[in-house]
Records
---
Amino acid sequence: QVQLVESGGGLVKPGGALRLSCAASGFTFGDYYMSWIRQAPGKGLEWISSTNTGGFNKYYAVSVKGRFTISRDNARNSLFLQMNSLRVEDTGIYYCARLFEDEVEGLRVDQIDFWGQGTLVTVSS
Amino acid sequence: QTVVTQEPSLTVSPGGTVTVTCASSTGAVTSGYFPNWIQHKPGQAPRSLIYSTTKNRSWTPARFSGSLLGGKAALTVSGVQPEDEADYYCLLYYGAGRWVFGGGTTLTVL
């Protein structure tokens, strides 16, 4: 069965850096787009980044662009999120998700099907 | 800045029917936004219920359905069960790999 397991969360000071990992199993990792989504305490879900199957195309929300970098290692079935210049408002649970392609009226878009359990990132002095 | 709006909270009786809607600040929501609906219970991983407006995931109970309603995306739950109490999020696609979540709707079954 599909499993996504995030790791690498923890406590970091503002301005610091952290690298999150997502270990995938139960499917052919290199065949799927992947994403990172987060949830700040008491707030809703926020899409922050996605990457295509080869890792060459990367997409970011405005809130993290220029500070966060998504990457993947298909040989190791792993997705990563390098987070630099962290801010207090980056605090939250970070989820990794798999995307599955669907076509509607000639348009093909990759959409989330499976989610990991999340890893907690706390940015505080 | 794109804003996706949902009802903050809804209450429904067991066995009843409830509809959650999802509006975009850019205008009417169409199938081209590929509306998704996600269920999230406290302490659990989120779970995707519906994609491409109307398509249920294989694990989604048949009482959940998606549609377009009056320029919005909609999630309808018919015959609500106590275990349906959760937060529900819509997710819309704005092109170039960019997605935006709605603010979420807390569904209370009372």
---
Amino acid sequence: AQSVTQLDSQVPVFEEAPVELRCNYSSSVSVYLFWYVQYPNQGLQLLLKYLSGSTLVESINGFEAEFNKSQTSFHLRKPSVHISDTAEYFCAVTRVGDSNYKLTFGKGTLLTVNP
Amino acid sequence: GAVVSQHPSRVICKSGTSVKIECRSLDFQATTMFWYRQFPKKSLMLMATSNEGSKATYEQGVEKDKFLINHASLTLSTLTVTSAHPEDSSFYICSARDRRTSGDLHSEQFFGPGTRLTVL
């Protein structure tokens, strides 16, 4: 079985400041990794994912995450946040070889960007 | 992106009654749908996986007779909470995978906005 730990339940930052949302996972088998974002009153949306290849993956809105196998981490970063980035962020994994690609989620991190 | 809707968004019911929650893929056909439950300040917990044309597969610890899942068509799945009790109060979320890309690792799950169930 897999598990995901998001170390911070809430992260408040000021606009234009950098941010890092931490994610660690535990698994006895290889996994794929994902970050989902949930804006208020909306469903979860895929932000970015790591499947293979380059360990640094980027989203279209400036977020990036780096897969670190030795530290079993997949931290999410953004060099300068906007008010509109305020949302709940979920880290998730799925086992390589799972035909349904079932996701195991962390508890989420609420990012609040203040003016 | 693809849209998944859930109905109702909120429901309040009396203990002992049954509640049905609908999950629809609006602009695509879903081979696989998932039902999750989310407790306050907890992660989303996968309850069951529903593949079109077959019975739902429930995760360990989830009572299949209490949480009835029907994947009625390629665009509709329903979750019925039978004989609901206050401990069933929670946020229920569904997601769906596009039939056209269901075998593609690069395809993603599209999530509904969730249904808040309160059992009095």
---
Amino acid sequence: DTEVTQTPKHLVMGMTNKKSLKCEQHMGHRAMYWYKQKAKKPPELMFVYSYEKLSINESVPSRFSPECPNSSLLNLHLHALQPEDSALYLCASSLSSGLYQETQYFGPGTRLLVL
Amino acid sequence: RKEVEQDPGPFNVPEGATVAFNCTYSNSASQSFFWYRQDCRKEPKLLMSVYSSGNEDGRFTAQLNRASQYISLLIRDSKLSDSATYLCVVKRLSGGYNKLIFGAGTRLAVHP
């Protein structure tokens, strides 16, 4: 089962709202990632968690706050977003973050619209 | 200059055609190479890894030339269902972990 699930599929929020995106995998993967993808652009890495610890933050604004409650779950907490944050947010996982031939598997994404 | 460069297309081809996509990468420290496929409004899905010896999966053939820092994907006997964006992806060490670097993608439209 090479499945990464994400909820919700779509989210509309105002600039003063607080919301959370959720990601789950049951493949025993120990590395999980958040990406942001704008229309007609490739995915851009935001965060990497390795063994439930934040390994990489690609200079993401603090209005995005990741959390990894356990090895299967990854959350992205959103607060005071801007309209330019509207995008497809993709979660991915891989067996580890260190093996060069490791494949990353992507979830279906959450399409976020900030009004 | 982008680290991974691809022709954005679109490539409009009839069913049954053979189509080739090219990709170049600039960082010689890149360690592994992939082609991902992304359908409209969907997530990227791994199509195939790319090895120096070249590899084939059915109608798809991928080649890597490390000396030229060039990657290719050949699709034979195109099907309507091959219509998608094809992302060239390289992996290299960054900050102690292996990071995926995506090309901007090449759009393929296969028509009847």
---
Amino acid sequence: ELKVEQNPLFLSMQEGKNYTIYCNYSTTSDRLYWYRQDPGKSLESLFVLLSNGAVKQEGRLMASLDTKARLSTLHITAAVHDLSATYFCAVDRWVNTGNQFYFGTGTSLTVIP
Amino acid sequence: SAVISQKPSRDICQRGTSLTIQCQVDSQVTMMFWYRQQPGQSLTLIATANQGSEATYESGFVIDKFPISRPNLTFSTLTVSNMSPEDSSIYLCSVDLSALTQYFGPGTRLLVL
């Protein structure tokens, strides 16, 4: 069974601080996805990491992928309140019915002024 | 990207009744996916719906409870049958346009009393 785990599940951090969210997965996969979900809203795609060693940055968020360790990280730099949301990682696996996504447990981030 | 709409956006239903959720995409897609997100939880894939074939259900989900239609390449419906309070969730449809990421609809928030 494919498992995708994130930690921490809940994260409360002060504005201006740095922190890293971790995503571990149990199967071989060359692709890793990060999504953001605001309360009461749907999911927004943040990053698609397509290969080992991939690193992508957007504003205060930077995501990286280590396929050998089956680990992705989402690093937050100098957090601001607007980053408060739930962050999900996901991996995909091709099956005969199509490309299926498996989501992590989610990390609920609260940035405190 | 894709523009995905869902109807209804939210509903409150009585136990024992059924609700059909519609998902409309602004472009033709081969695969559409239906997810359930229970309160405070991650996303769980219910089924994959390909046009012209029967939907493929994940473990723990059955066609009698969650019948799916896929009459064309831009539309799908998910019915939640004989509802109980445990079915209270957000139901999301998604599409896989380029096999690089999935785009999600805004979700249908269902409360069963």
